[in-house]
Amino acid sequence: MRLRFLLRPGWLALTAVVFTFAICCFTLLSPWQFSRNTEREQQNSALETSFTAAPVPLTQLLPPGAVPGPHTEWHLVSITGRYLPDKEVIARLRTVQGEGAFEVLTPLRTTDGTVVLIDRGFVKLDSKSGALPFAPAPGGTVQVTARVRADETDPKNRDAFADASTGGRLQSYVVDSQVVARAGKLDIRPGYFQLDAGQPGVLGALPLPQTDSGPFLSYALQWIAFGAMALLGWLYFTVRELKPGGALTPASAPTRRKSVAEILAEDEYAESGPLK
Questions:
Q1: Which of 10, 35, 72, 211 has the lowest tally of Cβ within 10 angstroms?
Q2: What confidence category does residue 39 fall into, taking pLDDT thresholds of 50, 70 and 90?
Q3: Does residue 164 contact residue 65 with C-beta atoms inside 8 Å?
Q4: Residues 123, 260: Cα–Cα separation, whole Å
């Protein structure tokens, strides 16, 4: 029966590869790109809203204990308090407009006693890949307008450190309020707040993301197409193998070439007929 070819090891292996690839396309790769597209849409919406919305007090947008999320990130808030420059940390291995940089993270104690993390912007690298000198945070009470940001995550969960390579200055691998909190033994509320240009204490203001849709939707549709093509290709070759002459049909034994003696004997037999 021709369906027996479906049980051949080679065909079973091919079937496993095709179906595994298609399942990954439909359940992992495509949904991942759809989720990234949704995140980009939420980010763009928040940015566009922040361009026209007036800043609101921090506690109005994020009550105590609230964590920045997709619906609050990038919104503008006003914060009043005093910088804590002795608890400052700089984030290393950053890239700003294609160039290496550091971001300066300075805690600020608000007038109600809450401590928040302010991202004062970036400074460029010196000739030894260290941070160029930068202005200290202003003293006294200041009022800043900043954008709400969610903490970054370090997969290795590394703490801030200081050694000879950093000139004794605390450095971290991510912009994370809890890393700075542990380094300075502070209770900092989750998330951080990114200064725009012209704010007290700002250094190089970080550029805002572009509000384009990105390629994620097209990538998601491509993964769906790849998965469908793999299944259709498998179905095509399966149907073809069910027909006579398929590529997996066992080839007939090769015909042995006759020797000269056999050919002459056959000719002689044909002329004289069988021996009596």
A1: 10
A2: confident
A3: no
A4: 91
The number of residues in the chain equals: 276
Pair 137, 88: CB distance under 8 Å: yes
**Quick one: CA torsion of 56, 58, 106, 101, rounded to 10 degrees?**
-50
- Cα(181)–Cα(137) distance, integer angstroms: 18
| Cα–Cα distance for residue pair 43/54, rounded to 1 Å | 18
pLDDT at 140: 95
Closest CA to 73 of 154, 178, 194: 194
Residue 176: strand, helix, or coil: coil
Least confident of 108-112, 207-211, 272-276: 272-276
* Vertex 156 angle, CA 151 and 159, to 5°: 70
Three-state DSSP class for residue 224:
helix
Q: Is 19 exposed, middle or buried (0-12, 13-18, 19+ CB in 10 A)?
A: middle
